[in-house]
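Sequence in, structure out. First:
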Amino acid sequence: MQYTISELAKALEAQAVGDTSLTIHRLSEPGSAGPGDLALASNRKYAEALADGTAEAAMLWADADWQALGLKAAILPERPRYALSYLTRVMDQGQGFAPGIHPSAIIDSSAVIGENVSIGPGTIIAAKAEIGAGSVIGPMCVVGWQAVLGQDTYLREHVSIGARVRIGDRFHAHPGVRIGGDGFSFVTPEKSGAEAVRETLGGQGHTKDQHWSRIASLGGVEIGDDVELGANSVIDNGTIRATRVGDRTKIDGLCHHGHNEVVGNDTQISGQVDVTSSATVGDFVVLAGQCGIADNISIGNRVVITAATKVMSSVRDGKVMMGYPAAEMKTHLEGYKALRRLPRFLRDVSELKKAVFKTDTSD
């Protein structure tokens, strides 16, 4: 896998300077780059490390003085980090999954397999499942009964897709993804202690000790086009209607998405986020790591939720939320600053009390 500087710059719609015929074999960090590498030095700080390596070519920034850095050639994109998304894709050697269907794969005779599909060892494709053309289904995966996967799906190893799940084109699932398990939905014969707490905001009353009865999840999962799920993420079936994830949404590893949840388009969800049952998340939303979204609430469009924030009530469009319980970021920071000043404030009050209430004990 090799490209010239000219070829890469043309694909990036970026300026190429110097000897653009130089051939690139791999990408490298500046300090360890050598001849044949493209050093990734997207700003001046990273470029300082070029002196520690022997790179002849680098991807820099738009107005970089590439000659002063001792390079023979450079690519100068307007937005280097965006350019990196292309470069890493074209230089990715993949996982080495072999083409064709491995002899150990178990494929039901009623399954529909598109053209140019790769299916790895130990994988199971259930009855009436459909796999779109150009897809790669890695080793030890399971695609359930009547599940439908669009074109150019890419499943890494140990991915499970449950019955009746429907997924669009160019879906990408990392190892251990689980889609289509039952939602965590249980009910007691009479009002439970948890229900009483929710109603009273604290009191359980005289609820009985009762067993839990499972509510089955019949609704399946529906996922749009160009969606990506990180390792060990989970999306549960809806109870009656499907749990839904919109187009181009990206979900990091170790995330949980509860039954009946709806996530919009172009939303980014970082690691360890939990979006609980029947919550709605809008378009162009960012949920940073370890957020928690309570059940049955709505997150508007273009909302940003900062890391470890716990959202207990609905959020309007465009808000930036922080803290536990979540508040607008500006409000939260003002409250935090006030809390930091509290010890000094209490000391001042104590000194004032001593001055005001000082008693003369002399006879």
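Second:
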Amino acid sequence: MIARVCDDHPEASVRQLCQMLSVNRAWYYQRLKLGSAPAPDLALRDAIERLVLEFPGYGYRRVTAALQRAGWMVNHKRVLRVMREESLLCQLKRGFVRTTDSKHGLGVYPNRLASCVLSAPDEAWVGDITYVRLPNCFVYLAALLDAYSRCCVGWQLSHTIDTQLALDALEMALARRQVRPGWIHHSDRGGQYASRDYITRLESVGAQISMSAKGNPYDNAKAESFFKTLKTEEVYLNQYQTFQDAEANIGVFIEDVYNAKRLHSSLGYLPPLEFEAAYAQTPVS
């Protein structure tokens, strides 16, 4: 309104205009500033909403990093404020269900990963198994992650939680990656990973076998973190009706979202595949 008055009466002074409106000049300048400025945060809110829709598990720090990668000049405090105002903060939580049975008579191994300092991909992999609920049953997901890049290098979904499930995930990883003798395979003490067939396959490719302490899932925190992300950002947001439905959607999330797009705070807010590509381009000192 004020801007239109000024356009319509360019000859009128600010004082005359204020007298006509019965306002002081401070009020006039404040209103002129607000009237000529774009609606605050609208574009930012749209960008944040698009990110949260694509990555429902993103917190404000990861959203901030994604925005900055896209060219936004924004800090985490502003992003947090907008996300609070729009109720966009992630609140997805589910209970923990144990899938490990370490009460077996099979051999176990010390935790070699705990004292290892990793410097490159494929020096160590971490493996674990979780469950996915279907309408009438559970199915089970085995996964192997590169401990350096957090990339999921192998996975398998099955109706049964057995050694073959773990072996199939391992075979996928071995077909995709190149490991050198002495690499570390870390897991919990579950019977699938301690079985003779699984240990024999690891030994055949020169692995050092490492296992978490009994009853301590935090020894395998990277695998646990992966499953938490998978559950909150994919599984809990869908209602899989069939095994094939679950397998297809989980596969897309792992390969196209988690490995290729999702930003990881521990990787400097890069996706695992981008982090590995940057490592490959780093000159050897």
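Remark: The two ends are 65 Å apart (CA to CA).
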